[in-house]
Specification:
302 residues, alpha/beta, Rossmann fold, 6-stranded parallel sheet, 4-stranded parallel sheet, 12% strand
Length: 302
């Protein structure tokens, strides 16, 4: 289950995907549509365990799955450090396991455990080469990020590609695209000298996977760029970990992009996927035992 976007279609081209109704932020009509979709999909697939990491579309699926007897594993987005997302808070009452991807969040949220982080557990490759040009990306966020798109017009010393999303701005002299299939985006990340991005987990992870230390500009809620300021704390935490370079004052962007070294420092941490597989196996075993118990009780009462 996801949203119908270019990167989703390319990443999951070989998978059976249901597309939810978006946007979901404070959108009651789409919530009602997604409840109906969840009831149909969960009813058809009858999962024993639902594993999800949000966002808003995950909430009705988690509740409907639990109502129909499934177990629920919720993994909070790695972008959340100071507190759980709204999706996390709404799913928590029906979740069997909750994982925070930062120890700071697990310490504040007594329902959550820390077992690793997708950024720290991924294998950071050495850069394929020095690369050339600048890639500026605002991700697939529904809100425009005009500040960053406008700032890209100042990067005139080399070629610039701007993935502008829903922004109406088109920086002069830059090659502009709205969205890209994942393969095309990944190729640009690999070949660019530097990646400038909002503080979105997907864009940051793509840069790190290619050994690029991205320049990160967090979105601000007071400017309507995000629903809250989680990107600010996320970006600062990544910088403390040595994974990104943060620019909060866009007047500094040209100077920072002009730096010669934008290579990432390889890091290692707990592998979150191992813990999720262990939890999944345990919950499937419990589910199987419960099913056997129900069949035995029906047999004895027959």
């Amino acid at each position: 289950m996801s949203f119908d976007k270019a990167d989703v279609r390319s990443l999951l081209a070989e998978e059976h995907v249901y597309f939810g109704h978006g946007p979901t932020n404070r959108n009651i009509p789409n919530l009602i549509r997604n409840i109906g979709l969840a009831w149909r999909v969960i009813g058809e697939s009858r999962p024993r365990v639902l594993v999800t990491t949000g966002a808003g579309v995950a909430v009705p699926f988690a509740w409907v799955a639990r109502m129909r007897g499934a177990r629920v594993i919720y993994v909070e987005c790695a972008g959340r450090i100071d507190g759980p997302s709204l999706s996390g808070r709404l799913i928590a009452p029906v979740a069997d396991r909750i994982y925070a991807q930062w120890p700071e969040l697990a310490a504040k949220w007594n329902r959550a455990d820390y077992a690793g982080n997708v950024l720290l557990s991924q294998h950071t490759a050495a850069p394929a080469g020095p690369g050339s040009g600048v890639l500026v990306t605002v991700g697939t966020n529904e809100a425009p990020f005009d500040r960053l798109v406008a700032a890209a017009a100042r990067l005139t010393s080399e070629s610039v590609i701007v993935q502008h999303g829903s922004s109406k701005l088109r920086p002069h002299g830059a090659r502009c695209v709205d969205y890209l299939p994942f393969e095309a985006f990944d190729a640009l990340v690999s070949s660019s000298r530097v990646v400038v991005t909002h503080a979105g987990i997907g864009s940051v992870a793509a840069a790190l996977a290619h050994g690029r230390r991205p320049v990160v500009v967090p979105r601000l809620s007071r400017l309507g760029e995000a629903v809250d300021d989680h990107q600010v704390s996320f970006a600062r935490r990544l910088e403390r970990a040595g994974l990104v370079t943060v620019v909060e004052d866009l007047d500094q962007l040209v100077e920072v992009v002009g730096m010669t070294d934008h290579s990432a420092t390889p890091m290692a941490g707990p592998d979150l996927s191992v813990e999720i597989r262990t939890a999944l196996d345990a919950l499937l075993d419990v589910s199987s035992s419960a099913q056997r118990g129900r069949r035995l009780r029906r047999f004895k009462s027959a």
